[in-house]
Design a protein that fits this description.
Largest sheet of chain B: 2 strands, antiparallel
Oligomer: heterodimer
Helix content of chain A: 40-55%
Distance between the termini of chain A: 34 Å
CATH topology of the largest domain in chain A: Rossmann fold
Strand order of the largest sheet of chain A: 2-1-3-4
Bound molecules: iron/sulfur cluster
CATH architecture of the largest domain in chain A: 3-Layer(aba) Sandwich
CATH topology of the largest domain in chain B: Fumarate Reductase Iron-sulfur Protein, Chain B, domain 2
Number of strands of chain A: 8
Order of helices and strands of chain A: EHHEHHEHHEHHEHEHEHEHH
Shape of chain A: globular
Order of helices and strands of chain B: EEEEHHHHHHHHHHHH
Largest sheet of chain A: 4 strands, parallel
Number of strands of chain B: 4
Number of domains of chain B: 3
Structural class of chain B: mainly alpha
Number of helices of chain B: 12
Strand content of chain A: 5-15%
Largest interface: A-B, 63 and 64 residues
CATH class of the largest domain in chain B: Mainly Alpha
Strand order of the largest sheet of chain B: 1-4
Radius of gyration of chain A: 19 Å
CATH architecture of the largest domain in chain B: Orthogonal Bundle
Structural class of chain A: alpha/beta
Helix content of chain B: 40-55%
Strand content of chain B: 5-15%
């Protein structure tokens, strides 16, 4: 990671303005508490989400590249995206522009017509909120500030699909000790362990929740989510920590749907890792947006002396 | 999943005779089970190229049928009929009729890219699934899937405003697919939320209808995207031979 990691550009993406509101709120709260600094991109646009590539992948590349161009114009070398989907799309644009001449051509063509500079690969690095907190702050500092506030909390860390797949768009991963693994990611585990939590051994870290069809094929999503929830419970987790608004709302929505439609009740709680980290840093549950989550983890937090 | 991922013989093609005598020898019963012969004459030789011409299908020719994709597949674990390796085989052989037996489930691919991760040949099976579902729709074999409705609503929202308006897309989607807004589980969600946080929740709903999220200065970018997409669509229609029919 290049440049000064204390200051990065912030790409919230559409979900964090809507259903992922609590992720946005908790990310901002944690960033402030840790003394980091981020500046929201001016006039950013949607990265293409999971849908635009099905209309045309080159359009998704352009949409993501436009945001990278803005980050560059604002003088940033690093852009931080907390949403897995955004993170994935910006990374993919970076890769495609460097390796696929057709994608680069379409990007130049649409950018010219839209009246702005075409982003050239290599200008800006995209990182996830996990990368940022782990690299810019580090476990030692986190442990010092968290004072073990998450002690006794059993967490299953859920990374979803787009943080590690497809592997070729994440050239910095799988580079041995210290780097992130695409097979068994651990950055969230590392951060929450530093904050005192007990990470359970969870085999479905990168399983899919069916988020792409959360509503268009809800029966499939409910089955996939239920599998994740019951496995987390079987592993002894009280909380599933998430790092993606789509995964997070998917788990919450289909937890309710599994109960209403299939009669399968699960009680594991679902919180953004930034919400857990925020409370570990001594912030209140309210200031990390816990009351905006679809499910109510109040009793568990009270039992653990959090919030 | 077991390595034996698919039986090549459908039950209706297995024949047993309860009483059969051939040359004076009684061959009745189970042990003389045989497979009905079939002759294939209607290969669709254009199918592979047509699917390769759609976004995501480009690398289908690289497949060497190792089966890693099916073995890793999220949806296959839920429904064994969902089989990317097998469909790629059918497409490359031109076995359209066989492919059409599964036409209603191909769109269910959840784009998890487990297949892409596992594939040793960079086929990007996820893309091939999308291209195949797309092909089925363009050829009129299947109606637009709920997922296609979703993709189109998202895309339209972005072209119009630069951003996604979740609430509006959700309403539009339920309408397009003819689903009631008042589904018990959706209601349970909203009720729970309103109970715990009524003022904020209602405020945000209200705020989003007044202040629709949009990107400033987006008009030219939106028009440039639309322009490009129309051109691409015309090219795809040509590749599939759909332009003469129109
Ligand atoms: S797990 Fe679900 S929401 Fe998360 S990245 Fe995968 S499909 Fe998307
Ligand atoms: S992307 Fe689709 S085909 Fe590939 S593993 Fe996931 S569900 Fe299966
Ligand atoms: S993993 Fe790749 S090469 Fe193997 S069967 Fe699937 S698409 Fe073909």
């Amino acid at each position: 990671m290049a440049g000064d990691l204390r200051k990065v550009a912030y790409y919230p993406g559409c979900a964090l303005e809507g259903s992922g509101g609590p992720y946005d709120r908790s990310t901002k709260a944690v960033v402030k508490a840790l003394g980091l600094e981020m500046t929201e991109l001016d006039d950013w646009n949607c990265c293409g989400a999971m849908e635009v590539k099905n209309i045309d992948p080159q359009v998704q590349t352009y949409l993501s590249a436009r945001n990278l161009a803005i980050a560059g114009d604002m003088g940033f070398k690093t852009v931080m995206a907390p949403c897995n989907g955004c993170y994935h799309n910006l990374k993919k644009a970076e890769h495609d522009l460097a390796h696929n001449p057709e994608a680069a051509g379409v990007n130049r063509r649409i950018s010219a017509k839209a009246g702005h500079r075409a982003y050239e690969p290599g200008g800006v690095e995209t990182i996830h909120a996990l990368d940022w907190i782990k690299k810019a702050v580090g476990e030692e500092e986190l442990a010092r500030r968290a004072k073990g506030r998450l002690a006794g909390l059993k967490v299953a860390n859920y990374y979803g699909c787009m943080y590690t797949r497809p592997r070729h768009i994440f050239p910095e991963k799988d580079k041995g000790p210290g780097s992130e693994s695409t097979l068994k990611p651990h950055f969230m585990d590392d951060i929450l362990a530093a904050a005192g939590a007990t990470n359970v051994d969870f085999p479905l870290k990168t399983a899919c929740c069916g988020g792409a069809h959360s509503l268009s094929d809800s029966d499939m999503s409910t089955k996939l989510v239920l599998n994740i929830l019951t496995t987390a419970e079987a592993c002894g987790a009280e909380v599933i920590a998430t790092e993606c608004p789509t995964c997070h709302t998917g788990l919450e929505m289909h937890q309710v749907r599994a109960e209403k439609v299939l009669g399968r009740r699960t009680s594991v709680r679902i919180l953004y890792f930034t919400q857990l980290l925020g409370m570990a840093l001594g912030l209140s549950a309210r200031s990390v947006g816990v009351q905006e989550n679809l499910s109510d983890p109040g009793d568990l937090l009270a039992e653990k002396g959090l919030g | 999943m077991p390595i034996h991922e698919k039986s090549l013989i459908r039950p209706e093609n297995l024949v047993t005779n309860d009483s059969l005598v051939i040359d004076g020898v009684d061959v009745s019963g189970h042990w003389s089970t045989f497979i009905r012969a079939r002759t294939i004459t209607d290969y669709n030789e254009a199918m592979e190229e047509e699917i390769a011409a759609l976004p995501g299908g480009e690398n289908i020719h690289r497949c060497w049928q190792c089966g890693s994709c099916t073995n890793a597949c999220t949806v296959n674990a839920v429904n064994p009929e969902f089989n990317p390796r097998y469909w790629i085989y059918l497409i490359r052989q031109g076995l359209e009729e066989e492919l059409l037996r599964d036409k209603d489930i191909i769109w269910q691919c959840v784009s998890c890219n487990k297949c892409t991760y596992a594939c040793p040949r960079d086929v990007v099976p996820e893309g091939v699934m999308k291209a195949t579902a797309h092909w089925l729709e363009l050829k009129g074999h299947t109606p637009k899937s709920p997922s296609t409705h979703f993709d189109e609503s998202f895309h339209d929202s972005i072209v119009r405003t630069g951003k996604i308006e979740e609430g509006r897309i959700l309403l539009e989607f339920l309408k397009k697919t003819g689903q009631p807004l008042r589904q018990p589980w959706l209601e349970a969600l909203v009720r729970g939320l309103v109970k715990r946080f009524p003022v904020f929740y209602l405020m945000r709903m209200g705020w989003n209808t007044v202040m629709r999220p949009r990107t400033r200065g987006w008009r030219r970018a939106g028009a440039a995207i639309e322009d490009y997409v129309q051109e691409r669509k015309a090219g795809q229609a040509r590749a599939l031979g759909l332009d003469q029919e129109a």
